[in-house]
């Protein structure tokens, strides 16, 4: 396959223009009705369903040759699936790529929102496994569509209330449901609830693509997004109560890394670009030591 | 000292290289050719064509070779390829009545016009390993006819005989252009045309199990195989410039029509009802299973009760029958989820700490 020049064999960014047009129409509709899930005729992509095909189709429909693309998975640019998707667009669209959040015009992400605040003109594309926030309360699509139409979200509040009754708090740590501009309840994709506040009032366009489930939804810039909660149990973000051991950041979402079999562990920024940027500016964490010569 | 988890790019390259070696296997054994797979693994090729929704035996054989014999992976390769192909035209509906028959059986009549033709079937073979095949090189004994007895005769459908007496529900012709689930998002409730389309490309194993469940009582439909036929049909395309249809080739199909007992319902009189299955290639297990599931899904139209059986549940069947969707989502849990897992870890730690504090306070 690598012998075949993809630029010749496939259209720019893989999808044909008719398909891109169909996807763009769904995106525009999604932007016009923030938080509303718009059905679209998702295509089989050359990567499996569940591996970001929705995000890839949205990205393909948004890309222009001048774009600079960043792809992250779990906040990192170098996780295998992020590498695979970035390569896909390098091959099929020939666009420039970057790891730097600030330099990217389009960012495709799985499970995180970058720590560096996004700016006007940027597009953040989320990969979404299950777009329906009510799915695990009501498995039938025919029912949940009706619930959205009627703005009937009582079931969700009952679920959250049951959490409080049972655990003393809302026991949802990621994919925490939000309400968009007081209308649609929306699944923010499986980002940790730490990232939820970044959804609201963002200057960037946020697009959500679910390939297997054939849905696209969107948050236009400066959209108000509220995480569901109760007056007496307000929404709280959460992260590991540590600083990053590499860059010392106190405000970033951390991954826990097991370092030995004696219970040793360290905490590092999940956003690799943010962490590397801080270290480049001389900030150091508890365990930071420059990598030895020759290490990859 | 923390060693960063880097090198994804190199790891992927190495994995692909290893995969290529594994695919080839022992280089001292001759490599499989596409014609070998196409001719000798024909039923696998058929399955890949059916579930891949692309009738091209050579490409299906290539996909099987590339996928190391993993048929779902091969179906995936075909699907991803097919979706990039332009739509040049829609063919006319194929006429299975004009099929050149290789096999045609009816379980409901002992004999019938057009005859019973067993064709190349495993049905009455004894499932004993044929060690002679291990020796290789042996050609089958000559003398067996390779095509049907009456290649030109029009073989009428069995259900047509019943229809003449009004004993079976009428299947009135319908020229509404069918929806295309590869070009439009699936919307529910789906009509029968869309259901059949989804079932035709559905996973054989899934459809088989659904059909089997109806036989065991979960949405029982009392099916007989009214007719099962396998053969080749001509594909014709209307050429607007010419004003008439032109044959562009032929494809092999398996068609199954079931005749189902039906005691009548609130809305329908007692009569036999139909289930329908049509699958590219010789895929008779799938065609029979499809016709059973089709019949089970028609409960509403025939005024039957919904008993809660999975095979009656359109949304359940249609949303879970596609093996490419299913395998992708199933296997995606191999991808890193450590951000979500971290969030869960924090939550569980917090809940445990609180539970412990409460317990201690109680003691």
TrEMBL record, chain A:
Its Enzyme Commission number(s) read 4.7.1.1
Q: Where does the signal peptide begin and end? A: none
Q: Which GO terms of the molecular function aspect are on file? A: 4 iron, 4 sulfur cluster binding; alpha-D-ribose 1-methylphosphonate 5-phosphate C-P-lyase activity; metal ion binding
What is catalyzed by this enzyme? Answer: alpha-D-ribose 1-methylphosphonate 5-phosphate + AH2 + S-adenosyl-L-methionine = alpha-D-ribose 1,2-cyclic phosphate 5-phosphate + methane + 5'-deoxyadenosine + L-methionine + A + H(+)
Among the Pfam families in the record, one is: PhnJ
Task: Tell me one GO biological process term.
Answer: organic phosphonate catabolic process
Its annotated function is as follows:
Catalyzes the breakage of the C-P bond in alpha-D-ribose 1-methylphosphonate 5-phosphate (PRPn) forming alpha-D-ribose.
| Keywords from the UniProt entry | 4Fe-4S, Iron, Iron-sulfur, Lyase, Metal-binding, S-adenosyl-L-methionine
State whether keyword Disulfide bond applies.
Answer: no
Q: What is this protein called?
A: Alpha-D-ribose 1-methylphosphonate 5-phosphate C-P lyase
Q: What is the top EC class of this enzyme, as a single word? A: lyase
- Sequence similarity: Belongs to the PhnJ family.
Keyword check for Iron-sulfur: yes
TrEMBL record, chain B:
Q: Which GO terms describe its biological process?
A: organic phosphonate metabolic process
Q: Does the keyword Transferase apply?
A: yes
Output one GO MF annotation. alpha-D-ribose 1-methylphosphonate 5-triphosphate synthase activity
- Which domain of life does the UniProt lineage start with? Bacteria
Q: What is this protein called?
A: Alpha-D-ribose 1-methylphosphonate 5-triphosphate synthase subunit PhnI
Q: What is its EC number?
A: 2.7.8.37
Alphabetically list the UniProt keywords. Transferase
The organism encoding this protein is Pseudogemmobacter humi
